[in-house]
Amino acid sequence: MRQSQLFTKTRREAPSDETAKNAQLLIRAGYINKEMAGVYSLLPLGLRVVGKIKKIVGEEMEALGSLEIFMSTLQNKEVWEKTDRWNDENVDVWFKSKLKNDTEVGFGWSHEEPILEMLKSHARSFADLPRAVHQFQNKLRNEVRAKSGIMRCREFIMKDMYFLSATEEDNTGFYNKTIEVYKNVFDRVGLGGITYVTSASGGVFTDKFSHEFQTICDAGEDIIYVNKEKNIAVNEEIYNAETLEKMGMSENDFEKVKAAEVGNIFNFGTKKCEQMEMFITHKDGQKYPAYLSSYGIGITRLMGVLAEVFADDKGIVWPESVAPFKYHIIEIVSEKPEVREAAERVYKKLQGNALYDDRDLRAGEKFADADLLGMPYQIIISEKTVAEGKVELKNRKTGEAELTDPNSLQ
Amino acid sequence: MRQSQLFTKTRREAPSDETAKNAQLLIRAGYINKEMAGVYSLLPLGLRVVGKIKKIVGEEMEALGSLEIFMSTLQNKEVWEKTDRWNDENVDVWFKSKLKNDTEVGFGWSHEEPILEMLKSHARSFADLPRAVHQFQNKLRNEVRAKSGIMRCREFIMKDMYFLSATEEDNTGFYNKTIEVYKNVFDRVGLGGITYVTSASGGVFTDKFSHEFQTICDAGEDIIYVNKEKNIAVNEEIYNAETLEKMGMSENDFEKVKAAEVGNIFNFGTKKCEQMEMFITHKDGQKYPAYLSSYGIGITRLMGVLAEVFADDKGIVWPESVAPFKYHIIEIVSEKPEVREAAERVYKKLQGNALYDDRDLRAGEKFADADLLGMPYQIIISEKTVAEGKVELKNRKTGEAELTDPNSLQ
Q: Of B9, B40, B97, which has the smallest distance from its Cβ to A122's Cβ?
């Protein structure tokens, strides 16, 4: 992409009401636009990051055998009444409105009930199960506060997956397999080393009903206790003498850190299916409630966490797997046509993989923009590099630079 | 995709409250799920069709130089008040709700105002223009009636593109270029021969302020008058003696048909930018309002129109370009393992391009499902075809079948 064609401009300052570093950086770099508190639009570079995260997550969910669907935002009151979750006292984040005929409608803050309702009309027998479905979708939540930038929004993109099965064995098997797959996901987006599996109901060493994936991050809203050496962590809620004893560990083994929840998984057992009357016929001809588990990953939150944890004082530093582009070509404007020609050749070679700063700006402005935007590698092309038949390849993260043969880039 | 892994089941009957053929077929075939009147979710095969339509539309918009973005559903009242379109008397399809602090919010029925507001912070000078952006997004509209299946929904996916320029010349040039690109789009999705450009304000022979793209379709909500030979059409609103005279044509030249609006384009001139105070600095140092034009295509509506116009009495007939899969492999269950082996070989060869009915069902049920689902080509593999070292390749549309070498398929 030619930067001259990119309509977004970088800014020195974020909006004064934006206090979260992730949103400040992403707004300044032109990745997102703030529509109101807790609501952000995705601009071209931001949409590319989200697209890369979605691709990684989608590949991993499909490898689990899950099929992608796309549920509606508008929600049917009757479906949610079955679990008593239409009630604002039980769910305090609903946005609701009314049709012209006064029928109440909700806006999807979750899709657990509608997805189960939809699956009911397609699965009746044990032979129809197990099945997994997932979607990437905007969730709308009427949060009281929205202060963590795109890490806690009133509108955000989530990947939610649901696994429906006839037996507890299938359910537990899929649950445990997904824990491993989620580790792959966080490894692939670049958060592997700082993301921990925790359990809100008993630590990783139990097989209780829910687990969280927590990334160490100063802007996170959660507290976890980690042992980095053993790669284990404990949620604040259950960090107590009893838990430590069960683990055979002591307080000295753990470090208290702030963390952001990037994923969570729930095992509903048969409870949700009982409430929703999702019964299936088993081999004995009898009807039994099905087992349900659900699996979330905060897609736009991940973008915020990545921006937050890898930033330095110059700007964003994307991991290569989710960067909008691997390379940022910086053409140092020159009167010699060879410089432009060399830049165009490199751009053509790397097309699709490079953002090309072809603007008529001073080198200093281009460097500052490139550092703020955070592509993993900068390719600097100037009179000097052209004279040597090379380009300067600079690592955004380490700052290391070397002259290299442009033909070796890929 | 193996049909044994596809959780959706076909149905003999659509829901009794569903009167539109497109939705009846798509629900019966398991492409969509009805959440409530005018609200449908996309199931795996439906999402694939939508994905193919989006890909075609996206490629054509990018070829115009447009960059993809993704705006929020939640909308800021203040932005819409600038054009007096927050008012329910002026816009009667708003869904609205409130934040916890009583701030009113709307749900995006359109994104014209928010996109222009966003662009304001990135374009200040003539040198920043022209720019085009587009998105694919759920629009929420509080329609009084929703009776045309997925052709008129309370929630639907639309591609909307916006072109912002400093001069009338740029604006008109892009407008006219997009008319041609839209023709490509409708050709590519298979609707070329039955889609007409019309003008609500003066016929195709003028360059007035808006044009529509109308596809001949019995379930359409519009009336147009077409001359198929000359490939022109006139909207009902302006079909009168004056228009006909201007065109040098008579009533005898036109046929009255029902049509569905699949695309529309608007030229706002400078009006919207004046209302929104989107001024840019020209070469003379003075500020002038920018020019705006907008370009819509109903993505999910297109799926409905395609299902509606190409259906026959057996079910859906997808054009190859938007079909979920090009091929439907129908394995006629046999005790001879060679049949399964042959089917698996063909599936492996065509992977990604084929839905494979590997279910343990009677041939009649499989044929009926395949006809309902509407892949363009059916590949029938039975003891008989295996004995001859062939497969039967059947064209869903024409019904023509021939024995063919499986190695020739691609």
A: B9
Mean pLDDT rounded to a whole number for chain B: 94
B36 and A76: CB-CB below 8 Å?
A: yes
Peptide bond into A337 cis (omega under 30): no
Task: Check CB contact under 8 Å for A74 and B50.
Answer: no
Residues A126-150: pLDDT tens digits? 999 999 999 999 999 999 988 889 9
Sorted by sequence, the CB contacts under 8 Å of residue B52 that are 6+ apart come out as B321, B322, B323, B324
For chain B, the three-class secondary structure string (H helix, E strand, C coil) is: CEHHHCCCCCCCCCCCCCCCHHHHHHHHCCCEEEEECCEEEECHHHHHHHHHHHHHHHHHHHHCCCEECECCCEEEHHHHHCCCCCCCCCCCCCEEEECCCCCEEEECCCCHHHHHHHHHCCCCEHHHCCEEEEEEEEEECCCCCCCCHHHCCCEEEEEEEEEEECCHHHHHHHHHHHHHHHHHHHHHCCCHHHEEEEECCCCCCCCCCEEEEEEECCCCCEEEEEECCCCEEEEHHHCCHHHHHHHCCCHHHCEEEEEEEEEEEEEEECHHHHHHCCEEECCCCCEEECEEEEEEEEHHHHHHHHHHHHCECCECCCCCCCCCCCEEEEECCCCCHHHHHHHHHHHHHHCCCEEEECCCCCHHHHHHHHHHHCCCEEEEECHHHHHCCCEEEEECCCCCEEEECHHHCC
Say yes or no to pLDDT of B203 above 60: no
The mean of the pLDDT values for chain A is 94
Q: What is the separation, in whole angstroms, between the first and last Cα of chain A?
A: 16
Report CA A11 to chain centroid distance, whole Å.
25
> In percent, how much of chain B has pLDDT > 90?
88
What is d(CA A175, CA A265) in angstroms, rounded to the nearest whole number? 8
Examine the pLDDT at B130 and tell me if it is beyond 60: yes
Task: Residue B85: name the closest of B268, B325, B290, B302 by CA.
Answer: B268
Q: What angle do CA B374, B377, B378 make, to 5 degrees?
A: 90
Interval A220-243 mean pLDDT: 91
For residue B88, the chain A residue with the least C-alpha distance is: A100
Is CATH 1.20.1250.20 what the domain over A327-408 is classified as, yes or no? Answer: no
Closest CA to A113 of A305, A271, A276, A236: A276
Q: Where in chain B is the domain with CATH 3.40.50.800?
A: 327-408
Tokens of A223: 């507290």
Where in chain B do CATH 3.30.930.10 domains reside?
3-310
Cross-chain residue pair B105–A97, CB shorter than 8 Å: no
Q: Does B142 sit within 8 Å of A100, measured CB to CB?
A: yes
Pairing of strands A377-381, A222-227: unpaired
* Gap from B45 CA to chain A (nearest CA, Å): 8
Tokens of A174: 């899929």
CA atoms within 13 A on the CB side of A90: 8
Q: For chain B, give the longest Cα–Cα distance.
A: 83
Q: Is-contact B383 B362, C-beta < 8 A?
A: no
Single pTM value for the model: 0.96
Which CATH code for domain A3-310?
3.30.930.10
- DSSP structure class, residue A70: B
CA distances B389 to B184, B338, B343, B366, B386, Å, are 40, 11, 12, 22, 5
How close is the nearest chain A Cα to the Cα of B78, in Å? 10
Position A90 pLDDT exceeds 70:
yes
DSSP annotation of A290: P
Query: What per-residue confidence (pLDDT) applies to B200?
Result: 67
- The torsion defined by the Cα of B66, B72, B76 and B77, in degrees rounded to 10, comes to 90
Looking up tokens 């063919």 gives B404
